Amino acid sequence: MAQRQGQCPACGGTVEFRSTMSLVAVCDYCRSVVARTDRELLDQGKVADIADSTSPLQLHLRGTWKGKSFRLVGRVQYLHSAGGRWDEWYVAFADGKWGWLSEAQGRFAMLQHRPLAEESALPDDAELSAGRKFTVGKSGGFTVAEVGRAVVAAAEGELPFSPIWHAEHRFVDLEGPGRLFATIEYRPEGPQVFIGEVVTLGDLGLAEAALKAAPTVTVNALQLNCPHCAGPLALAAPDTAQRVTCPHCRALLDVEGQKLEYLMTLKPPRPPLRIPLGSQGTFRDVSYTVIGYLRRSVTYDKTYYWQEYLLYAPRLGYRWLVESDQHWSFGQPASPGAITTADLQASFDDRAFRLFQRAEATVRQVWGEFYWKVKVGDTTRMSDYVAPPYALSLETTTNADGTSEINATVLEYVPHEEVEQAFGVADLPRGWGVAPNQPNPVTARLFVDWGLTLAGVWLAAWVIGTIRGQSVDNALTLWAWAMLSLVPLGSLFYSWNFEYRRWQDSEFSPYHTGDDE
User: Fold this and answer.
1) Where residue 237 falls among pLDDT bands split at 50, 70, 90?
2) How many structural domains is the chain composed of?
3) How many angstroms separate the CA atoms of 125 and 83, rounded?
4) pTM for the complete prediction?
């Protein structure tokens, strides 16, 4: 049997293997990767320290998933080829099995290895692209969310494999209906499939343990100096920031840990912000900080612009406030695997959406801090669907190295007053046009009330006629009905005009006719 405890061959410190499935452990004293065999412990080189993060998890926390108790015994930190890090926690179950708890931008997924008879038939990652749908074994249909590359940047604790440090890690992330999630890792020995689901810390019985382990979680902005002008600037989310702009010299800076690298100077003028960066406010019961601003556009017969404000909450991650034609929407991430599309339709969360536009969106202005390596001129293919008060946006990015990613966002129309109250701003301009996801003020309730009122008039005429012993003049009744119908008939026309204006800039308008061309 392999050793469960021994001395590190590099420094002599004690190295312990708590899981029977672990093959290597990182020495707590010298950061050496120690592999165990039946006879001895072997030194396999050193590994970097784990980068600081706001993760609520830590080694040795205990939890339960689907009735099985487990313990977090190791962690691998990956560096994405496009920048950014994420954590994979090695989970040792009490029954001797193991799995991975993936953590990225406040989102968690519990995964376990699934030996599949069909593994040999899995497509190579070069054959896959974001948005493609296919079936993995008996686990159902998936949507490719990302085809990516990464390297192992750091590790701690125990691991069930001996990784090749800084070697390329090829992976494909898949998302399915509900909370279904899977990853295919392309290793030299062949593809390995890990299947599970998106979870919360509460699902794992870790919420209370994490709070006890870190009773107070404070995220302090990292104070740095611009390498271009030496002016001071702060990172609100230093563990995930990838790009930031200098507020003094308009430099676009690359972020790597606590180091900033000058990339370019952005062209003037500085963008006019409806909500100043750094503004804090409570929106939908969550405290956010406004940390970034993008101006983007699409071009059809003319160019259409909109603005996106990036919101950050330490435990929740990132959300968006989108301003388009002086209308506002609140954006939250959605799972591509939970979305089905066909022709001009999309379905998500039991709602039917209709296609509004397909276009290539371009970044026109950048200001503030971002969790990806954004720059002016970046493009993405987008498809927008609407089901007022909601909109559904699918954005697909394909890179020269063959990697690709699809991001889904569900946006809810927000009244101006709610934005003003949340972030302490006043007098936001009101748009005259109709937003694609703006609710129609005329509802079916109006026509129900109209019908009930007409019935009430008829009933009143009948009661009065019965009491008087003679019928009420029919002309008078019809006149009353006609007067009462003016408001709903006017509302019906207003509702039709409202919908027509909603779709007037869409090539997929249901009101479009051949004469419009």
Assistant:
1) confident
2) 3
3) 20
4) 0.85
